[in-house]
Each structure stands twice: as C-alpha cells, then as structure tokens.
Amino acid sequence: MSNRGGIDSSIQDYLEADHQVLFMAVKAEFDTETIRVWTGDYDLSIGGATYLGVGNLLSISNIEDTLEFKSSGLSVGMAGMDATVLNLALTENYQNRFITVFLGYLSGGTDTVVGTMTLFKGRMQSMAINDDPNGSTIIIDAENRLIDLSRPSNLRYTKESQKFIDATDSCFNRVASLQDKEIIWGRASSNTSSNNNNNNNGLGKELVGR
Q1: Cβ atoms within 10 A of the Cβ of 116, count?
Q2: Which of 63, 69, 82, 192 has the most CB atoms at less than 10 Å from its CB?
Q3: pLDDT band at 161, cuts 50/70/90?
Q4: Where are the domains of the chain?
Q5: How crowded is residue 26: how many other Cβ atoms within 10 Å of its Cβ?
Q6: Is the pTM of this model over 0.70?
C-alpha cells in the first residue's frame, strides 16, 4: 500500500504507524448536487468540503487493488438516508456520474484530517433503493474509471468529429475531398507523357539537322 501511486505525502508516515485513526469517505457527483458522506458520526471538513457523518450506515464493498491493469467494480451502501439523498437517487441521471472513495487519517483524539488518498474512482452504473419504516437504503454499483478504456470513442478522422473535440481545429477539413482524389504514384501521367514526346521530337529534329 505504501508504494501505491497518488498517496498524499502528509500521510506516508501514518501508513507505517502502529496506531492509526482511519476513516472512509464517499463523494457521489450527481448533476445538481454532490453527496459527501463519511464513516464518522459528525460533520467533517475534508479538502475544504463538508462531509456528512453517517457512521456505520455507510458500507463499502472490498476494494481490489492488484498489479494487473484491469477494471474492478465496487458497491457502496447508504442506509437511513434523508429525503434529499433519496430524491437525488430517484430523480437524477446517475449513470456514468463520478463516485470517489477516499481513505483518510485523523490526528489522534481530534477531528483534524491529516490527509487522504483515493482508493477508488469510477462511474455509477446501477442503483437499487429499498424503502422500509426505518429509512431508505441505497446501493450503488460502480465501475472503475479504467472501464472507459474499453468503450469505443465513436470518433472518426472527419471534420465533424474534430469539431466536436475542438471547434477551432481545421486539421480534417479537406479529408472528404481526398476520398475520390486520384493520386499518381509510380506511373507517368498523360501530361508527363506529352511532355516527354515533345522533348523527344525536338531531340530527333536536332539529330537529323546535324
């Protein structure tokens, strides 16, 4: 774990410490609002943003971290959520929106965040909502952002695709005109043949005159 890339330098020493105060935090980025929760029982400031303390109502499945370059999924469960979170789950377009899971360290006996590291960042794919008298439970299934590498871009080497990326780029403006363009390569053109004949005729007359 200490060799993992992207670790905040402020928590490297804590990874080797005998006594650690760990926490988990989740950031789910919906279109109209971002939900931030963590495993404590009070509100906590992380990176300048306030995370709602939900304690053990937040559950996170095992996070697989291997040396292989592959995508691994994740499930995040949030129980007892209030009407605001439930409304977002019911009405928002959540698919392919980002969700991030952080591992953080608290300074012992305080609510000061020493540092955080990103354990997982991916896109929300599916969501299940269970409603009962004790509250609503929301289960979010997410795919690692590496899944984007297996998706087709649907872009082509055309002017239209390039304008979608950069409206000011004119690199492919003449691609369409090249489709039926005749390119002479390795053979003489009709104009070249005519010029050669004229040159030969002139040379012949010169030889005859001599």
Answers
A1: 18
A2: 63
A3: confident
A4: 9-150, 154-210
A5: 22
A6: no
